[in-house]
Write a structure and sequence with these properties.
Length: 364
Amino acid sequence: MNVARLIAAIEKGAGEEDIKKLDGMEMGVYRGRLLTAYAAYRSAKTTHEWESRLCTKQISSGQDLLTAETKLAQARANFQAAMDTARYETLIAYTEAAQERQVAEFNAVAAEQQLRLNGADDEVVEVLRSLVPKTSGLEPCVCNDPNCKQDELPSVQEALGKDERFAWYALRSPFAGTLIEKHIALGESIDTTSEVFTIADLSSVWVDLAISQQSIPEVREDYSTTILLPDGSQPETIIQFVSPIIAPETRTALARATLENTGGRYRPGTFVEAVIQIPSGEEVVVVPKASVQLVNDQPSVFVWGSSAFELRKVKTGRSDSSKTEILRGLKAGEKVAAVNAFHLKAEYIKSAAGDLGAHHGHSH
């Protein structure tokens, strides 16, 4: 744009002193050519005016005046050609700069859209916009003031100031949560693929349950589940996901439930147990889990008879933390010992041992 200033100064008939004021400014390769042509034109014009006065006073011949007029015409043509070339090159440079600015504006719009897609709000966008150097446009200045800085672009360092904001960049989480881990250190170089922080939404937590491959066919989504926590609480939830894949290392499959975590009561990483309520397709007999005792390696229950408990062998099915399914050996409605069944088992074994000892003595 300094070439445009020089052209404007020349067209206004600037003298040598005014031209010197533009010394030191970046002009490009056409500054020297333009000034040389301008100086030759001014010299030829001065010579022509001098010869014209001498010829009027009949001091010099008409031939000298004709020669001066020829040189003036040639200098004028050369000067005009230099001016046209300078204007053309300035126009080309201006056009290219305008195109580059337009492309930069398009890129800026695309970058802002990408920022908003990544979760940036208006406040973040305005902060980033404030970091962009301010310019007054690409129109060339023609005020002929060498101290004018209308079309000079400040450096980024000047625009941002010489403080630490030059290295600031806003990172915005795509959702509200709790900062779990930090992976960035002061001075570390990062790019768009770097993981600098880990944010977790703890308003709800997953409960991952390992289901054995024998039991996994019976577990389905939407089954009611009771989570047994170390503090003794037993929140209710449902199964939301059952993995179709068996882990080769543990031979288990993943079943997942979700607990609402209001107040942050449930902490990720806590070891828990769960009771999954599996519906049965038919009516079954169930007894308290403590009612089933292993007697002579056979599952058994103590059934109330007419006046005492009697031992009865049974076949058990599925079991949870409180109940056991009886497949065979017990009818619905029969009463079984639910409390102190272990003591009944001890008395039975003691009594059976005593009978065996008496019979053994009798044989001898």
